[in-house]
Amino acid sequence: MGKRSAQRRHAAMLDSGSDDDSSVNSISTTQPNVFSFPVNEEVQVEKDTLLDEALDALYEKRGSTREKALSTIIEAFNNELQHLFVEKKFVTLLHLCIASIKKGSTKEISLASHAIGMLALTVGCGDNAREILEDSVPTLSQALKCRSDPSTISSMLECLAIVTFVGGNAQENTEKSLQIMWQVVHPKLGSNVVAMKPTPLVITAMVSAWAFLLTSADSYGLDLKSCQESILYLSSLLDKEDRSVRIAAGEALALIFEMGSFEKSSSSEDGSIQNGNKPRESIVQIQGLRAKILNQVRSLSMEAGGKGSTKKDLNNQRNTFKDILEFLEHGYNPESSMKIGGYSVETFTWSQLIQLNFVKHFLGGGFVKHMQKNEFLHEVFGFTPQKKYHIDGQYRMSSEEKRLFKSPNSVQNKARTQYLNRQRMLSKGRNAGHYSVFVGDDEF
C-alpha cells in the first residue's frame, strides 16, 4: 500500500460532501425563517434588512425568538460572506452572541457559539479577530466549566478553536485555549468542583478541536514531560469502544509525531533536567509508547466489524488507521485532493488534513462558498480560485471586493500577510522536524 492509495482514499472522503450529523449548521439550516422576505436577488437591501431584523431579534426576551434569529444569521453567513454587515455590526453581533452563551438554552448556546465562529472566519486576521478572541474566550472558558450538555460543550469547543486559530496571533493565546480545552476532560478539582465523566461526544469534540488548534502552535523547545502525558492519554483512547473517539485520538497522535522529532532529540540531548525529568529518559518513554501505539494502530487498521457497526464507519476507521500506520512505519504523510470550482485544494501533511477536515465540518453547507470567496481560507490552504476577467483581459474587482479594499479594516492585509508567512515558516519547520508540541502544564 503506497501514497497513491492513501491519496485516493482521502480524495473520496473529502469529495463525499458535508454529512456531519453533529454539526450545528445542520441544526440551523432546518429552522423556519421567521424573518421572511420575498426573494429578489436584484435588491441587496432586502438581504441587509433580513440580517438587521435578525440582529434586533437577539434583544428579545423570548428564547425561541433568539434561537430563530441566530439560525437566520448563521444561514446568511453560510450562503454569502457578509462583509458589509460585519463591518457595520460585528461588535453588536459578537456581544449579543456572548450574552446568549451566558443566559441561553442549550440550543441557543450552540447556535451562538457557531455564529461567533462564523463571524471570526468572515473577518479574517486583524484587529476585529483579536477583539472576538479577547471578548469571547472568558465567557467560553467559564461556560465550559459549568455546562454539562454534550452538544453544547462540543459547539463551544469548536468555537474556541476557530476564534483562537483566526485571532490568536500571540502564542500565549494558543497555549491558553489548548489548556482550556484539555481541562474539559481533565478538570482542575477544587472543593466545589465535582468531576463528571466526559461522554464520547465530548471527548471526540475536545480531541478534534485540540488537534486543530495544535496545528497553529509554533513554539520551539519540546516540553517532553507534557508531550509524554498527552501521548499516554491519547493512546488510552485508542482502546475505547466509541469509534469516533478512536479516530480522533489516532489523528491527534499522528499530528504529535509529525510535529515532534523525538529520534533526533534523543541523539542530541545533553542529559539536562527538564520539568523534573531527564530529557533522554522522557524520550525513551515516548519511544516505548510509540511502539505500543504502533500495535494498537495496526489492530485498528484490520479490525473486523462488531455489533452495531456500519460498513461506512468501519471502512473509515480502517482507512484512517492504515494511513496512520503508513506514516508511523514509513514516514508517508497522507495526501488529499478535492475539487472546488474546477480547482484543487490539496493537503500533504497531517496538519493540513486536520485543518481542512475541521473547517469543512464546522462550515457544513457553507464550506464551498467560503472556500471560493473567503480570502483568509485561501491563505490558510494555499488555494487560489479562478478570478473573473472582462473581455478586455483585465480583472475587475467586484463591489464586495472594492468595499473590502476601501474599508478601514483593509489594514488586515498586513496581518494576513504576516499570517501567511508564519504558516509557510511553520510548514518548512515541521517538514524539517524542528517544531515541538505544546500541550500545557501539569494538568496534561
From TrEMBL:
<dbReference type="InterPro" id="IPR016024">
    <property type="entry name" value="ARM-type_fold"/>
</dbReference>
<dbReference type="InterPro" id="IPR039777">
    <property type="entry name" value="IFRD"/>
</dbReference>
<dbReference type="InterPro" id="IPR006921">
    <property type="entry name" value="Interferon-rel_develop_reg_C"/>
</dbReference>
<feature type="domain" description="Interferon-related developmental regulator N-terminal">
    <location>
        <begin position="38"/>
        <end position="329"/>
    </location>
</feature>
<comment type="similarity">
    <text>Belongs to the IFRD family.</text>
</comment>
<dbReference type="Pfam" id="PF05004">
    <property type="entry name" value="IFRD"/>
</dbReference>
<dbReference type="InterPro" id="IPR007701">
    <property type="entry name" value="Interferon-rel_develop_reg_N"/>
</dbReference>
<dbReference type="InterPro" id="IPR011989">
    <property type="entry name" value="ARM-like"/>
</dbReference>
<dbReference type="Pfam" id="PF04836">
    <property type="entry name" value="IFRD_C"/>
</dbReference>
<feature type="compositionally biased region" description="Basic residues">
    <location>
        <begin position="1"/>
        <end position="11"/>
    </location>
</feature>
<protein>
    <recommendedName>
        <fullName>Interferon-related developmental regulator 1</fullName>
    </recommendedName>
</protein>
<feature type="region of interest" description="Disordered">
    <location>
        <begin position="1"/>
        <end position="26"/>
    </location>
</feature>
<feature type="domain" description="Interferon-related developmental regulator C-terminal">
    <location>
        <begin position="374"/>
        <end position="427"/>
    </location>
</feature>
